[in-house]
Amino acid sequence: MSASGGTRAIVAALLANLSIAVAKFVAFLFSGSSSMLAESVHSVADSGNQGLLLLGGKRAQREATPQHPFGFGRERYIYAFLVSIVLFSVGGMFALYEGYEKIKHPHELEHWYWPVGVLVFAIVAEGFSFRTAVKESNPLRGTKSWKEFIRHAKAPELPVVLLEDFGALVGLVLALGGVGLALLTGDGVWDGIGTLCIGILLILIALVLAVETKSLLLGEAAGAEVIQQIEAAAVAGDTVTGIIHMRTLHLGPEELLVAAKIAVRHDGTATEIASAIDAAESRIREAVPIARVIYLEPDIYSESEAAKGADPEATPGGPTAPPAAH
To answer: Cis peptide before 322, with omega less than 30 degrees from 0?
Structure first.
């Protein structure tokens, strides 16, 4: 992921949400609309979420220590997971509670032009933020669908901002519908129903974020295309004849660990094999710059052992199994 691109999307979302949160809360004070209160809390939660993403990106840049020899890249995943918790609890659950209370104790909206005007302004501001996130994501998305991009992106920031902004836009439409129906019918229950819909939407988005960031926290392998690039770079020399088995792990969005058992010529000297390993590491880093940590173990290829399959306990083991989609 382009760190600068992700940061631009986060900052755009933060500025939009802060301004929208203030406007929504003022509209709630004048109108008493529960949809406006739920939406103002939603925007406050989103602002806090963007702050968490910025903090996670900053802390992930710390240098490795003896206690954390692989660095702190995964902090970006941790803070993205916290975003899903905040969105679920502060945004979704509060909206459900507020909607229930409004349905149970409905009252007529006052000064209707405040919530309507603020919602129109919020839709424009959120649209700008969403457009920025889409623009920054497109170069990284390539030919993938948006669903594939969100599911398989190794950097969490842009998918989080995309889902938040999309949820915010849909939530604003729901709030506008609830307020509009409450005005047309004179029944404040519609405002509460709109608030309940907002809460359900936020909870669903929070669950999607939680599932995706949990997978990143557990540790994901490199994508199939990156694995092919690593394998091709490793065997480009004369001494390394093939990959016996290989494991990859993302230490962070832009840090990859590569551990492989490589087949070398049986008549090579120790010096030749050591030089071949160094050359293979250089080729891998050139082909895949995010491969920061590389461990290559030389071995003699055995057809009988390879036939056992992708067994990490076999010597030398089998072919690398393709990474499973999450």
So the answer is: no
**String of DSSP letters for 140-156:** HHTTS-HHHHHHH-S--
pTM equals: 0.74
* Count of Cβ atoms closer than 10 Å to residue 64 Cβ: 15
Could you read off the pLDDT tens digit of each residue along the chain, which spans 326 residues? 444 447 888 888 888 888 888 888 888 888 777 777 877 887 888 888 888 888 988 888 888 888 988 888 889 899 988 888 888 887 788 888 888 888 888 877 677 778 788 888 888 888 888 988 898 888 888 888 988 888 888 888 888 888 888 888 898 888 888 888 888 888 888 888 988 998 898 889 889 888 888 888 888 899 888 999 999 999 887 788 888 889 999 998 889 999 999 888 777 788 888 998 999 999 999 999 999 999 999 987 666 565 565 554 544 434 444 444 44
Phi, psi of 231 (to 5 degrees): -65, -45
